[in-house]
Design goal:
This protein is an alpha+beta fold and 1128 residues long. Helices cover 37% and strands 16% of the residues.
């Protein structure tokens, strides 16, 4: 699966050297080996990070110890070397290797561990470097700390067994002790408290802490119940297992505060406080390890019986690499407190006669290899564990691999998981959409096309070969051969010698030569370091035998103790499999969820960009201020990055890239919305209507084509309307409106109703479209079509009235009349031109209409219709005062009897009452209309005079000649009846004159009226006139008396109110203050508010609005009432 490390043999002891290597230690460029003879060998390592690594001739310290050197460790900060020999701890100088101190209390020591940390002094709080030493012996633990160039005795803590291993937790405050009988305890170095580390017990339903049944876990670990080692819970000492059986307990510190405890094949992950981590399951060791260590970021285990090292991912427990090393017995990894780079580079493994330098492959190359072999979960896990300083663009790399994983899930037909992952990482829409056929993705689809074709935005290429100095592709160990010369070979992703079962049941297609393989995924803009990666075209791996789903594909078979998965061989170049209808429908349903999320992200991003664009335009006209804050872009920071045309460098997005990013966002939104439309059309047609009716960025060409194919014309009209494509919408509606027969696909669109409703939604900016497409409805259904211009809406009222009137008049005179009547009667338009135009249209309609032809030759009906129009003209002439009477009078024919009454109305408006009455009396010969005319005129004159002030009335009377003061329309009418003037015949109309005198005698001047009466008329015929006059005079007298009495009553009431007001008084005491200014009133002039409050006179004036009052000033008492105030 992975070449994380490669072994280079750097030292091999010849057969003549009768010593063996018992211990190993390294620091800086020094390699220290403890021999069985008690000698110490010091080597200098040259070029440790290259393939030319070598050792200098050894410096041998004879008689370094009288017994074999069992363990070595150094504290670089204190420049000391610590050794365990003959069950005793000795301290040597790290440079001269001179013995400095022997810790006699450590006699019988079995193991030790050192740590160096920065700690604060309890008293002063000053941080300092503190080195600590923990020594384990028989049932005891000794703790030392380094002070003043020597170790000081610390605590001696009793434990429940012989100490076999010691591991310091993070911070140096606690230490994990592995006991000989298989248990572990956590010891606090400050308090000396030792607490047992108890593995989680099985639950009541027989399930272990890792979620497996206890019986299965026990079977994997070699039998027994759940617990430490083979003994299990409740068996042996303290419930930890049967002491002395199995391998020794092992422990190591992992990343952060995690620690790993191992007994036989049972493992437990704990934190620095000794608590088990619930989200960590047990590692399924196929063989019990003899040593474990953490080489960032991997867990390395040594198996002497199998003569190999196993490299695992501590997060997933997956076996990544197996390295065969003959006779391997020990490994040395620098402690975690050393720098991470150092921890990764200085990694040594040794046998009794040979030392290997374990070189770490570049982290990015490791990730590339995992991706190339298709183990995407492992690549993601490794990237997440690595520090950002070790991997350039870590977050982008993780996101890229997650997108590759999502595509792999899609190819495995796990559509929901794929789309959820695409959405979580905000994958570029192009990358997701292209996985679908053309019916969904359009031209962007790669189904049926060469998937390996390089896209416009970049593609992923395979690495051309291994880097200089790294492990060859065959995984061989550099620096040696095989067999008796002591060299080793690396078994990469193979099986264990005794395990013949393969780890994967999936089928893989063998591809072309590895150097020629190319990625089948056009990943779009990706990070440069991943452009060498070859990823699987897993779409061709469609076998139903494929059982490794997602993460289980990497580690599923390992949990049973199987060998690691073989590398997934990239397939041949091929096109993605075409999904059947059922599978495609499932995939499209999940795609809609992703597109909906992308649609929301784009909408918010576009809004923020537009706001920033507006701010930038305002800032350009104002003084320069702080630059706008950056906007988080969806689909990755590089997706919307703009590029300079002259140089392929990303432009600063906060300066001048807003327009370019906005343009890119619009294009992406168009792709997302159009694809969502296609997806709805394929799987959820009922949702298409809601999509097209809302604001969207769908491609009009695609929507028009698909909706027409399916006959969804209603949705198409709504879409055109929402996209402001009004001509296209109206053209479609016009086709249905003019169609001779009804289309069964859209019956409601037949006829003019739908196009009329659409035209009503347009405002004045679309006036040419309204005029163009309203013509047909106005001709076939004028009543309904006129609602376009007459409806009570903002759009209709915003239309330019003059242009609309001209347009309607060109079509039909009746339409123009209806529009003008609406403007004048409903909208109260007082434009004189409109009033005059309506009158001219009335005249034209009355004169030019063939009434008999329109009414099928029925003269009675024709006359009735014509009289209706004449009455409409007369009513308008009487009510309107906005037209120019002289111009209208010129339009009315003098000799046409149809318009004599209209002329009379216009003459009346002009004040020419005599000429108007002549028409009623002599031409129309209608005394009744003449009388009604006089009543109307007299009433209007009376209302005008009543609204005029008395002074103006008196002035007007003085200005008129004496003979004109009492001359009114009734007198003019009476004069025409009794004294007609030429050219009218001198025939007297006594009956009509007597009717006027009887009914309206009180409105006539008596002397003038009686002077017109012939002398030979009998007094008896004037009885009615005199009675009306007497009644009128009596009525006026009575009315005057009533008014006088009412006036007196009002005066008495006012006087009474004034007396009451003057009788009011207030008391101003010494301590009374003004409620407005809060000063004492004293002897100042005061005012009493209507509410009864007493204030200073000046304060009252200010409260009143600054108005002063009459009445003088000064002190004293007095009273004045005015404006609701009273002054004392």
């Amino acid at each position: 699966m992975l070449n994380a490390f490669h072994a280079r043999s750097i030292l091999e002891l010849g057969p003549k050297e009768r010593v063996k290597i018992d211990s190993i230690c390294a620091h800086s460029d020094k390699l220290l080996l403890g021999a069985s003879s008690g000698n110490l060998r010091i080597y200098t390592v040259h070029s440790p990070d290259t393939a030319d690594v070598s050792l200098s001739p050894p410096r041998i310290i004879e008689k370094f110890s009288r017994k074999p050197i069992d363990a070595l460790a150094c504290i670089k900060e204190s420049s000391i070397l610590i050794s365990l020999s003959n069950s005793l701890i000795s301290i040597h100088d790290l440079e001269s290797f001179v013995l400095q101190q022997t810790l006699q209390k450590t006699s019988g020591a079995l193991c030790f561990a050192v740590t160096t940390n920065i700690e604060k002094d309890d008293d002063t709080g000053i941080p300092s470097i503190v080195s600590r030493l923990a020594v384990g012996g028989k049932k005891r633990l000794l703790l030392y700390s380094w002070h003043d160039a020597e170790f000081r005795d610390g605590r001696e803590i009793s434990v429940g067994g012989n100490v076999r291993t010691i591991t310091w937790a993070s911070g140096g405050g606690k230490v994990v002790v592995g006991l000989g009988w298989g248990g572990f305890v956590m010891v606090d170095v400050h308090t000396g408290v030792a607490a047992d580390i108890v593995p989680p017990a099985a639950t009541a339903n027989g399930v272990g802490p890792d979620g497996k049944p206890v019986a299965e876990a026990a079977a994997e670990s070699g039998g027994g119940q759940w617990g430490w080692g083979m003994g299990g819970m409740g068996m042996g000492m303290g419930g930890w297992g049967m002491g002395g059986w199995g391998s020794k307990p092992l422990s190591t510190r992992l990343k952060g505060e995690e620690l790993l405890l191992v007994k036989d094949k049972t493992t437990l992950f704990i934190d620095s406080k000794g608590n088990a981590l619930p989200d960590k399951s047990s590692i399924p060791w196929p063989y019990a390890p003899d040593a474990i260590a953490y080489s960032y970021p991997y867990l390395v285990s040594l198996h002497q019986s199998q003569q190999h090292l196993e490299v695992r991912n501590p997060a997933t427990q997956s076996l990544l690499q197996t390295i065969q090393l003959p006779g391997v017995t020990a490994l040395h990894v620098p402690p975690p407190n050393v720098a991470l780079v150092h921890a990764g580079k200085l990694f040594y493994v040794c046998s009794p006669t040979q030392v290997w330098r374990m070189g770490s492959v570049d982290y990015e190359a490791q990730v590339q290899e995992l991706i190339k072999n298709g183990h995407l979960d492992e690549a993601i896990s490794i990237l997440e564990q690595l520090e950002s300083v070790l991997v350039d663009g870590k977050e982008e790399k993780i996101r890229e691999v997650q997108m590759l994983k999502a595509q792999s899930l899609f190819d495995k037909r796990q559509y929901r998981e794929s789309m959820e992952l695409f959405a979580n990482v905000e994958a570029p829409p192009e990358r997701v959409i292209r996985l679908f056929p053309k019916i969904i993705a359009g031209e962007l689809s790669i189904v049926g096309e060469d998937k390996h074709k390089e896209s416009d935005e970049g593609s992923i290429h395979e690495a051309s070969g291994t880097e200089s100095g790294e492990t060859p592709e065959n995984g061989g160990v550099e620096g040696g051969g095989t067999g008796t010369n002591g060299t080793a070979s690396t078994e990469q992703l193979g099986e264990h010698p005794d395990d013949a079962q393969t780890a994967s049941t999936g089928e893989a297609v063998v591809g072309e030569d590895s150097d020629k393989r190319a990625n089948g995924i056009d990943a779009g803009p990706v990070i440069s370091s991943l452009r060498k990666i070859v990823t699987d075209d897993t779409s061709s791996i469609r076998s139903k035998k494929l059982t490794d789903d997602d993460a289980a594909s990497v580690r599923g078979s390992i949990r049973g103790g199987k060998a690691p998965l073989p590398p997934k061989v990239p397939p041949k170049k091929s096109t993605p499999s075409i999904l059947d209808e059922k599978e495609l429908r499932k995939a499209v349903n999940e795609l809609t969820v992703y597109l909906g999320n992308s649609r929301l992200l784009l909408s918010k991003y576009i809004e923020r960009l537009q706001a920033q664009q507006s701010q930038a335009s305002l800032a350009s006209t104002a003084s320069a201020g702080a630059p706008p804050s950056p906007i988080k872009a969806p689909f990755g920071d590089s997706y919307f990055a703009t590029r300079n045309a002259s140089a392929d460098s990303v432009v600063d997005k906060n300066q001048n890239g807003v327009d370019d990013r906005l343009e890119k966002a619009w294009a992406t939104a168009k792709l997302v919305h159009t694809t969502l439309f296609r997806a709805y059309m394929y799987s959820k047609p009922t949702l298409v209507g809601s999509l097209v009716r809302q604001p969207n960025h769908c491609d009009p060409v695609v929507v028009n084509e698909r909706l027409k194919e399916t006959g969804r014309f209603h949705d198409l009209v709504d879409f055109f309307g929402g996209k402001k494509l009004h001509r296209e919408a109206l053209t479609l509606l016009k086709q249905f409106a003019e169609a001779p027969t009804e289309d069964p696909r859209a019956p409601s669109l037949h006829g003019p109703t739908r196009i009329i409703h659409y035209l009503q939604t347009l405002d004045s900016t679309h006036l040419p479209l309204i005029f163009e497409f309203a013509q047909h409805p106005l001709l076939i259904s004028p009543t309904l079509a006129m609602e376009i211009f007459l409806t009570d809406s903002e759009n209709a009222e915003s239309l330019p009235r003059q242009k609309v009137l001209d347009y309607l008049q060109r079509l039909d005179r009746a339409l123009a009349i209806r529009y003008l009547e609406h403007l004048i009667n409903q909208l109260r338009d007082l434009t004189p031109d409109f009033h005059g135009r309506l009158i001219s249209l009335y005249l034209e309609h009355i004169q030019k209409t063939d009434w008999l032809a329109e009414n099928a030759g029925d003269e009675a009906v024709a006359k009735e219709k014509k009289d209706e129009w004449k009455e409409r003209l007369l009513e308008f002439l009487r009510e309107s005062r906005q037209y120019r009477s002289d111009r209208v009078l010129g339009l009315l024919p003098k000799d046409d009897p149809d318009f004599w009454e209209a002329r009379a109305v216009v003459l009346s408006n002009m004040g020419r009452h005599r000429e108007a009455l002549e028409i009623y009396v002599f031409k129309l010969e209608s005394p009744l209309k003449a009388e009604e005319y006089c009543v109307r005129v007299h009433a209007s004159q009376s209302s005008t005079s009543s609204s005029t002030t008395p002074s103006k009335q008196a002035s007007a009377i003085r200005e008129k000649p004496q003979q004109q003061q009492h001359l009114n329309v009734f007198h003019i009418l009476l004069e025409m009846y009794l004294a007609p003037q030429p050219p009218y015949p001198p025939t007297l109309q006594l009956d009509n004159a007597l009717t006027i005198l009887t009914r309206h005698g009180s409105r006539l001047d008596a002397s003038q009226a009686l002077a017109l009466i012939p002398e030979d008329m009998q007094i008896q015929r004037l009885e009615g006139y005199f009675e009306s006059r007497i009644r009128g005079a009596n009525s006026e007298g009575s009315e005057g008396m009533i008014r006088a009495q009412l006036g007196k009553g009002v005066g008495w009431g006012l006087e009474e109110k004034l007396v009451g007001l003057r009788g009011r008084n207030v008391v101003v005491k010494e301590g009374r203050v003004c409620p407005l200014c809060h000063k004492r009133l004293g002897r100042s002039v005061v005012s009493v508010l209507p509410s009864g409050e007493v204030v200073h006179y000046g304060c009252g004036v200010q409260k009143r609005g600054g108005g002063g009052g009459s009445g003088g000033s000064g002190s004293g008492s007095g009273a004045e009432v005015g404006g609701g105030w009273r002054k004392f």
